[in-house]
Amino acid sequence: MVQTEQVIDPADHINLATKIAYKFRPKHSYEKIEDTEVFSIACEELTRAAKSFHHDRGDFARFAWRSMRNGILQKIRFQNRKRRKANFSLLDDKRWNN
To answer: Which of 3, 14, 29, 57 has most Cβ atoms within 10 angstroms of its Cβ?
Structure first.
């Protein structure tokens, strides 16, 4: 007997994306959660998790939560790393040699 794979619809689990977006939203943000970048990243990761999920791995909600969390943290780390990057193009020889 061959077991067919169930197709997972990300729209059925959009509440997970909303919950994790609330957890990672910026403090004192007054915009709707659906308009935030965190929510859009969570939705992207939710669809990616729905495509790559295998039922023998366990519960989809746990897999999707971890995927969304990792995607948001990766974006936060990338933004922090971008802020720390030094830009030496504005310095010329006159500024280096006081």
So the answer is: 14
